[in-house]
Each structure stands twice: as C-alpha cells, then as structure tokens.
C-alpha cells in the first residue's frame, strides 16, 4: 500500500496563518467592539485638545482638567489624542480598560503631549 503525502504551498500556509490570526483577533472582541477612553490630566486647563473618534476629528478648547471622553470603536481605526496647556500635561489612551498609550510633557510654553495607538 502506498501512502500519499501532499505538501502545502506558500499561499496555502499564508492563508492558514491569516485565518489563525483573524480567529485570534475575533476572540478578543467576540462580545462586541472595543471601548476606547481618552484622558488628559494636568494642573489646570488644557488650552486645546484634539482627538480622533468613531465620528471623526474633534476638539475642545480651554477644557478643565482632568478631562476624558469615551466611545465605541468599530475596527481598523487609529486612535490619536493631543493636548497643550501649562505643564506638566499628560494624555492616555485606554482600550477596553487597558492602557495602550500614555505620554507626559513637562516643558514648553505651552507644553504639548501626544498619544497614539
């Protein structure tokens, strides 16, 4: 009796890896889309805050600190927030409660900070 062995080609292997990665990502958010929270902290007022959400680019002027906003992401988004004001001023991005980016600016007039994910 002869046994036949079939070798997978590179496209088949890449497809299998892609399916595995897609399934892993789907499990992470199987219960819905991720919740994203932006936070800005500092001693006074953020003169200007600019941020990207599911509805586009938004901004706040002279926002009392601490400041935050939250939204539901729909996938494939880049998360960005920047702020300027008297230092130190810091930004933070949380996805499903986990910090994915944070930064603090201590110098500059005004101090400027940016977080991306």
Automatic annotation (TrEMBL):
GO-annotated cellular components: plasma membrane
Signal peptide positions on this chain: 1-30
UniProt KW keywords: Cell membrane, Membrane, Signal, Transmembrane, Transmembrane helix
UniProt subcellular location: Cell membrane
Record Pfam families: Mycobact_memb (PF05423)
Chief location category: membrane
Domain of life: Bacteria
InterPro entries: MmpS, MmpS_C
Assigned protein family: Belongs to the MmpS family.
Protein name: Transmembrane protein, MmpS5_2
